[in-house]
Structures are given as C-alpha cells and as structure tokens.
From TrEMBL:
CDD domains: PBP2_GcdR_TrpI_HvrB_AmpR_like (cd08432)
Gene Ontology terms, MF aspect: DNA-binding transcription factor activity; sequence-specific DNA binding
Superkingdom of origin organism: Bacteria
Coiled coil: none
Similarity remark: Belongs to the LysR transcriptional regulatory family.
Protein name in UniProt: LysR family transcriptional regulator
SUPFAM superfamilies in the cross-refs: Periplasmic binding protein-like II, Winged helix' DNA-binding domain
Organism name: Pseudoduganella lutea
Sequence ranges assigned to domain HTH lysR-type in this UniProt record: 5-62
C-alpha cells in the first residue's frame, strides 16, 4: 500500500515551486496564501526536510525541494495529458473500399452490417464505380476489381471466380431452353471487350444451341440495372450467380436452365510497396472471410 502525503499538499508545493511564490500559487489554486503555507509546512513535516527557503516576497527551493519538484511537475503534467485524452472523442479509423456498382449493390453493401458488428471503431467509406480509381494517398485504401489483370504496381489477390447463367423471376420458373425463341432476353454492356466476357453468344455456344438470330430486347449500360430489371420480372438475363446468390436462395430469382459459364475473377487489390495499415488489414481479412478465402491459422 502506498504511503503518500495528502494530494492537496503536493499540489500546493508544486504550484509554489513553479511560481516561486505562495501568493501566486494561492491565486492559481483559489485558496489563501496562508492555506498554501500550511500545506507546504505539512509536507515538510511529513518529509522531515525543509523544501523552501522563505524570503521576502518569494520562496526559493532548497536542495530537497529541487529534487522533489520535477517529479511532481512531470507527474501532474502526465495526469493532465491523460485526462485530456480521455475527455476528447477518439479519432475513428476509416477504410475506403472501391468496387463496381453491381458488386457494391448486391454483394458488398448487404454485408457491411457484419463488418460494423465485428469492428465498431472502423468506419467504411464505400465507393462504387465501374472505372478503376486510384489507390493509396488520397484515393481508396483497397479495391475489389473484376477482370483478369494485370494490375501494375498493385498487390492483387483472387477473391473468387465468377459464373454466369440465365436467371429470371419466378414467373419464368417453368421455362425451358425451347422457349428461348420467344422469351424476352436482357443484356448489359461490358466496359471492356474481352473473349472471356460472359455473353449470350458464349452461353448459346456452351449450351450447344443455335441462337437463330436472337438478341436482347432490353440492354443496360451496367450490370446492376440489368439485375434490377430481372427482379422486376422484365425478362431473363445472363447474370453472375455470385452476385444474385442471396436472391436465388430466398426465391426472388430462379435459374430456369443450365449451363453456367465462367466469367472473370474478383480480385482484392491494394498498393504494393508497403504493408496496409491495421484497419485496412482488418477489412481485407473480413472480405476474405466473407468470400471463404481467409486461411485461419492456429497457434
């Protein structure tokens, strides 16, 4: 158990030593000079040593006082700084993630509540764009990009590969491939032309069907709007089975026929050359876990 003199005596001594005056110490502590003198005297009796040489209009530290003063000064400064830190709201960490509009709407956004529950002190800023944004500096901390790469100057880690198949609302659940000639087909534009783009033409070839000049009656500029049109019952679209997995599971959408064809790969991408900060690492591990690619280690 610590044996310490009263805190009031220590405060009076520290203030008097700092000002070199009982009067100014009393003004700071909102007491009388006599009260300061009594507190200092009590501390001197406790220690058995004179701490001040009392002179006219001022007090001067003795050798014992000079040894005690910096210890108390630094201690009170530490108390003050600690209390200031505790009284101020802590700055929150923020992680900015950029990805495509469709991935944001149908895969990432529905999952962010799980991240907030796991990391309540980290804020997410989600940026949706079908064009690649800069990473690092004032750009995004990390991105989920769709394609084959390469991604120069970046670390790119596969998240999962995509598959596409005809998907529709339950109104089309009984449809067969023989009905494709008169069913409304929905399509969307790919920003970049690539032989692996999952198109209706590729799907008809994989299904060993002749398209017979069939073409989409409804075409959107992005995948997210095509998914919305399918949910509204406007036709059948060749959609990512990963992005609409929840809708297929809860029955809002159906996959009336096969096959499924491969698409591209979603990659976790961040700037090379330095380790991501701790909040970014937390987001990376969470994304890996959501995609089922997090390798759990045991000690």
């Amino acid at each position: 158990m610590r044996r310490l003199p009263p805190l009031s005596a220590l405060r009076a001594f520290e203030a008097a030593a700092r000002h070199g005056s009982f009067k100014e110490a009393a003004s700071e502590l909102a007491v009388t000079p006599t009260a300061v003198s009594h507190q200092v005297r009590a501390l001197e009796e406790y220690s058995g040593m004179a701490l001040f040489d009392r002179q006219v209009r001022r007090v001067v530290l003795t050798d014992a006082g000079k040894a005690l003063y910096p210890v108390l000064r630094d201690g009170f400064n530490s108390f003050e700084m600690a209390l200031q830190r505790l009284s101020k709201p802590q700055a929150r960490e923020r992680v900015t993630i950029s990805t495509t509009s469709a991935f944001m709407a149908y895969w990432l956004a529905p999952r962010v509540a799980a991240f907030r529950a796991l990391h309540p002190k980290i804020d997410l800023e989600l940026h949706a764009s079908d064009r690649a944004v800069s990473l690092g500096g004032d750009g995004a901390d990390l991105a989920i990009r769709y394609g084959q790469g390469p991604y120069p100057g970046m670390v790119a880690e596969p998240l999962f590969a995509d598959r596409f198949a005809p998907v529709a609302s339950p109104d089309f659940a009984g449809a067969s491939v023989d009905d494709l000639g008169h069913l409304p087909l929905i399509d969307f534009q790919w920003r970049r032309q690539h032989p692996r783009n999952p198109t209706w033409e590729r799907w008809f070839a994989a299904a060993e069907l002749a398209p017979d000049g069939q073409r989409a009656q409804l075409c959107f500029s992005d995948e997210a709007h095509a998914i919305g049109a399918v949910l509204a019952g406007q036709g059948i679209a060749l959609l990512s089975l990963e992005l609409v997995a929840a809708e297929l599971a809860n029955g809002r959408l159906v996959q009336p026929f096969t096959p499924a064809i491969p698409g591209h790969t979603y990659h976790l991408v961040w700037s090379a050359g330095h380790l991501p900060a701790a909040p970014v690492m937390a987001a990376l591990d969470w994304l890996r876990e959501q995609a089922g690619t997090l390798v759990k280690t045991t000690s």
